[in-house]
Amino acid sequence: MVTFVDRVTLHLRAGKGGNGCVSVRREKFKPLAGPDGGNGGDGGEIVLVADPQVTTLLSYHHSPHRSAGNGGFGMGDNRSGAEGEDVELAVPIGTVVKDPEGDTLVDMVEPGMRFVVAPGGRGGLGNAALATPKRKAPGFALLGTPGWEGDVVLELKTVADVALVGFPSAGKSSLIAAISAARPKIADYPFTTLHPNLGVVQAGDVRFTVADVPGLIEGASEGKGLGLEFLRHVERCTALVHVLDCATLEPGRDPLTDLDVILAELAAYPVPEGQIPLLERPQLIALNKVDVPEAKDLADLVRPDLEERGYRVFEISTVSHEGLRQLSFALGDIISRHRAEEAEKPAAPRVVIRPKGADKEFQIRVEGGTYGPLYRVLGDKPVRWVQQTDFQNEEAVGFLADRLEKLGVEDGLFRAGATPGATVVIGGGDGIVFDWQPALSSAAELMTAPRGTDPRLDQSTRRTTSQRRERYHEMMDAKAAARAELEAERLMTTAELESERLGHDAEDAE
């Protein structure tokens, strides 16, 4: 049994870029002939392609995890790594690509339309590409960056000119089979149609497509029955045809009541911003099954009421094909007029993408923390540079510091109130954490010396003559004080000894 799937979540992982190579060329009589490390290859990307031959998202429902190939590592002798293999995913025309939050990324409405949904990682530069006149033999290379990884939601909205709507078993599938080459499943029980069917109708010189939307019931816009799942397929249609069953045997049902219920459900369904509400689009009434005598009498009875509401009414039979030609030509006239109006509309303005200014390439956000403020640096360049840095290589870390300083990150940290030793995080989430120590060229804001002086330039430690003289006098004063203290202690000891001797002589005399 074929299953129709019109909504699926894809788990994607683009390819990782390959690392650059650190290599030094060696030739005869030239043991160190210069760096020749090649660049890493870019990671493969995942591309969505609108394919007219694909009508369902079933394959992605069974296999939602897709990944692209990784880029190869760079090699010596200036050999670059291989590019990662791209992955192309064919989707039906009319597929809307959304992020997990529900925001629309792209609407695949044109055949052959391509959209890179998961960009691959960038390959790292080898030391040959990093060589400069000042850095002739770099001892490091850049690492490859990881590819995009995350989830996207694919939602299929049928691209058709006309939508057939009505209650279950109203004859919509029979109608599309009678006016086109489509062969949907037809049976005499409700909800036979479990997915929209498309058919191509030729009415004179006009060719248009018709979509058979699964049966709607009361409460469909709130999730009852199958209506909520498939009302989205009505959004793109230019005109609506209400197929009303004139031969139903269910109690409490008649064409007028069925029409009121369907109109209420269409009115309650919100269309995307910028689209015409469903009930404001051209609508026709098709009173079906008039080949049955009782149904013919009921159609003649309700037709005046429907025409009084302003609808064009057609009495049809999918068995005898009565009224189908008139209905097809009426729809063709509506579609041709709509296409002419669309052709006269001015073309959409071109979207010009301008490069971002240097002051917008990063932003610094101050966040509170348990041990003081935390300064988070966000931006494509700083995050990518950190991903490309091998933190086991001191030269690579120094290269990263130079790049961040040239970008203006350190000046931005000063303006944000950061001080030496502050915690700085580059990137979202945990990111890369640093204990920030500003470079020499960016520490002017910390200087407290008088204007016109710079204590960083005062590196002399030699004492002047006055300092040496002062030090000499301090030393001599200290020696004199020590001698006086020793002399005082000596005199005190002599006096104590003399007093003790006199005491002993007095005792002997007695």
From TrEMBL:
Residues 160-336 form the OBG-type G domain. SUPFAM superfamilies: Obg GTP-binding protein C-terminal domain, Obg GTP-binding protein N-terminal domain, P-loop containing nucleoside triphosphate hydrolases. Its cofactor is Mg(2+). It is found in: Cytoplasm. Keywords: Cytoplasm, GTP-binding, Hydrolase, Magnesium, Metal-binding, Nucleotide-binding. Residues 453-480 have a biased composition (Basic and acidic residues). It comes from the Bacteria. Residues 354-438 form the OCT domain. InterPro entries: G_OBG, GTP-bd, GTP-bd_Obg/CgtA, GTP-bd_prot_GTP1/OBG_C_sf, GTP1-OBG_CS, GTP1_OBG_dom, GTP1_OBG_dom_sf, OBG_GTPase. The keyword Secreted does not apply. Residues 2-159 form the Obg domain. Residues 448-480 are annotated as: Disordered. It is an enzyme of class 3 (hydrolase). The keyword Hydrolase applies. Mg(2+) binds at residues 173, 193. Gene3D superfamilies: GTP-binding protein OBG, C-terminal domain (3.30.300.350), GTP1/OBG domain (2.70.210.12), P-loop containing nucleotide triphosphate hydrolases (3.40.50.300). Its EC number is 3.6.5.-. GTP binds at residues 166-173, 191-195, 212-215, 288-291, 317-319. An essential GTPase which binds GTP, GDP and possibly (p)ppGpp with moderate affinity, with high nucleotide exchange rates and a fairly low GTP hydrolysis rate. Plays a role in control of the cell cycle, stress response, ribosome biogenesis and in those bacteria that undergo differentiation, in morphogenesis control. Belongs to the TRAFAC class OBG-HflX-like GTPase superfamily. OBG GTPase family. PANTHER family: DEVELOPMENTALLY REGULATED GTP-BINDING PROTEIN-RELATED (PTHR11702), MITOCHONDRIAL RIBOSOME-ASSOCIATED GTPASE 2 (PTHR11702:SF31). Monomer. NCBIfam families: Obg_CgtA (TIGR02729), Obg_CgtA_exten (TIGR03595), PRK12296.1 (NF008954), PRK12297.1 (NF008955), PRK12299.1 (NF008956). This is GTPase Obg. It comes from Microbacterium candidum. The lineage of its organism: Bacteria, Bacillati, Actinomycetota, Actinomycetes, Micrococcales. The gene is obgE.
